[in-house]
Specification:
Layout: H1 12-19, H2 30-83, E1 97-103, E2 109-112, E3 126-131, E4 140-151, E5 154-163, H3 168-243, H4 249-280, E6 289-292, H5 293-307, E7 312-316, E8 322-325, H6 327-345, E9 350-358, E10 361-368, H7 375-378, H8 402-412, E11 416-421, E12 427-432
């Protein structure tokens, strides 16, 4: 049965946040839904503004037509009163205005410039008259105005009219709704595209905030869990000493050792977290220098042989590669890796350190003959506090922060670190710089 290897970098909550999806399958994504809402809002706004503009323009055109009709009636009235009926033949009206003067009682037309103009009365006001199929090929649609006159004791009616169907302003007015709809299509498409881009970036930022919140929430929970156990142990042994342990030499020694051990564990957790915070915030100074990988591996081997004499470490660097990076940070990374190998593969483990060139990069690897990684653990390879189970089993020492700081240091060096299973079995950590 494989042991659970203490892995690290981000909290388990990050996986939940990463897998969270907005909306159900088969439904519109939030960005498309928001874009459609924005597009509909733009469409409603434009249609409302277009309708208001058309109404205002229609009112303006109608006022202009009424003004022209009033002026035409006034000109007819002045001509009849000052020059007589015969001068109507020489009346100069705008080309778009037709008129007729007829006797009110008999309806006989005295003068007109349009024999088809129907005789209507508006009682001094401007009105609209429509008659379908008035002409053989079209309808009659006019705006007209009349005024009652008296000439030589005869009651007359003067009428002026404007053919709305043929009026250029009225034609333009009738074409506006169609033009508005045609122009609306590209505007809506542009608004949808822009809003889609904006909403996607907004939702992406929101998801990032949500992921950060979930990660920090899980991080706080994990830190509390990790610190709670040593605090409980320290508290328990302190109470033992307070009650009767101080009088028992064996218990006194055991309690003091436990308190010191758990205090050291707590200090290691806090120190590691502070180091990771400084690394991730870019507050760690990187001092690059050139050195040979074989010499670096040899130093690691000598150090570990002192503390773990039964461990076998082999070095493979056939090209005697030279690397330029921060040796102290690289040493810290491989110290974590080798400590994990000893922890899970045992004191008599076999570790292979290898280096090879891959294009412009150098790959440094460490493999062991231990149990390796399960698929579940590989998926959480560098999450903080992750130990391969939900119970945080303390039988395996450590808080699950080792490889997480190795990951942070690798990124600080501009490299990348991956966890795999070696082809022959055992764990394989690959660092590319």
């Amino acid at each position: 049965m494989m042991k659970n290897r203490g892995l690290g970098m981000e909290s388990p909550g990050e996986g939940v946040a990463e897998n969270r999806r907005f909306g159900a399958r088969g439904r519109l994504s939030p960005s498309v839904f928001l874009s459609l809402r924005f597009m509909l809002l733009i469409a409603f706004s434009m249609l409302s503004l277009s309708l208001l503009f058309v109404l205002l323009l229609r009112s303006s055109v109608t006022r202009k037509q009424d003004s022209d009709l009033a002026q035409g009636i006034s000109l007819i009235s002045e001509t009849i009163n000052s020059k007589g009926m015969d001068e109507l033949a020489f009346l100069e009206l705008p080309y778009y205005i037709t008129y007729a003067v007829w006797e009110q009682e008999s309806g006989m037309v005295i003068s007109t410039n349009d024999s088809l103009l129907p005789l209507l009365e508006s009682e001094g006001k401007s009105r609209t008259y429509f008659e379908k199929d008035f002409f053989t090929d079209s309808d009659l649609n006019i705006r007209y105005r009349t005024k009652k006159l008296d000439f030589a004791g005869k009651p007359l009616v003067a009428e002026c009219a404007i053919d709305i169907a043929n009026d250029s302003a009225a034609k333009m007015l009738s074409a506006l709704p169609f033009l508005a709809l045609v122009s609306l299509a590209p505007i809506l498409l542009l608004s949808f595209t822009l809003s889609l881009l904006i909403s996607r970036s907004t939702i992406k930022a929101f998801k990032k905030l949500q992921e950060d919140y979930d990660r920090e929430k899980a991080f706080t929970s994990n830190v509390s869990h990790e610190l709670k156990t040593p605090i409980s142990i320290i508290d328990g042994h302190a109470n033992l000493l307070k009650r009767w342990g101080k009088d028992d030499p064996a218990q006194l020694t055991q309690s003091i050792e436990a308190i010191l051990r758990e205090t050291e564990n707590m200090n290691a957790i806090v120190t590691t977290l502070l180091d990771m915070s400084r690394i991730e915030n870019g507050r760690v100074k990187i001092e690059n220098k050139k050195f040979y990988v074989t010499n670096f591996f040899a130093k690691l081997k000598d150090e570990f042989k002192v503390t773990h004499p039964e461990c076998t470490i082999r070095i493979s660097d056939p090209d005697f590669l030279e690397i330029e990076t921060d040796e102290q940070k690289l040493h810290q990374i491989f110290t974590v890796i080798l400590s994990n190998s000893v922890k899970f593969a045992g004191e008599k483990c076999e570790i292979n350190l290898a280096a090879r060139k891959n294009g412009s990069k150098i790959e440094l690897s460490a493999s062991d003959n231990g149990p390796g990684f399960t698929e579940e653990i590989l998926n959480h390879a560098f999450e903080r506090f992750y130990k391969g189970d939900t119970s945080h089993d303390r039988n395996v020492s450590g808080a699950g922060l080792g490889l997480s700081i190795a990951k942070a240091l690798s990124l600080a060096l501009g490299g990348d670190i991956k966890a795999k299973n070696a082809p022959a079995g055992g764990a394989l950590i690959l660092l590319t710089i």
